[in-house]
Amino acid sequence: MHKGSCLCGDVTFIVSAPPEGASVCHCGQCRRQSGHLWASAYVSEEAIEVQGPVAWYEASAMARRGFCPRCGSFLFWKAHDENTMSFALGALDLPTGLKLEKHIFVADKGDYYDIADGVPQTD
After folding, report:
1. 53 - beta bridge partners?
2. Which Gene Ontology molecular function entries are recorded, alphabetically (predicted)?
C-alpha cells in the first residue's frame, strides 16, 4: 500500500494495489503543467482511494488531469476510455520501493536537459 498527498495536504490518496508502468512523461502538456516533467504510475480505479477536493482539467479529448484546487499540485491523469488512473510518484510518501520502467514522449522533451539514466525511452 502507498499513501500520498498534495503539497498542502487537502488531497490525500491511498493506493491499495501494486502500481504499474512507473514512467516519466516528457510531453508538452506535462511539461507545462508541472514545470518540467511528470513521473507517474497507474492502478485500476478501484485500487485508488482519493479524499479531499480534486479539480479536473480536460486537457484533451482523450484525458483529464486532476489537481488540488488549493495548492495546485498535479496529482492524477485519467484517460476517458480506460478503467485505470495514473498518480504522481512525487506525491507518494517515502519510501516507495518503486523503480522507473520507461520515459515516454521523449521526442517532445525540453531542450535544456538530457536523459542519461539508462531507462528505456519511447517517442
Report:
1. none
2. carbon-sulfur lyase activity; metal ion binding
- For 65-83, b/e burial (b = at least 16 CB within 10 A) is bbbbeeeebbbbbbeeeee
Q: Do 39 and 24 meet the contact criterion of CB atoms below 8 Å apart?
A: yes
Provide the domain count of the chain: 1
Strand order, beta sheet including 12-15 = 2-5, 12-15, 48-51
Q: Read off the CATH number of the domain in which 99 is found.
A: 2.170.150.70
Give me the pLDDT at residue 7, please.
98
How far apart (Å, rounded) are the C-alpha atoms in residues 6 and 42?
17
State residue 95's pLDDT score: 97
Domain assignment present for 92: yes
The pLDDT of 7-17, averaged and rounded, is: 98
Contact call for residues 71 and 6 (beta carbons, < 8 A)? yes
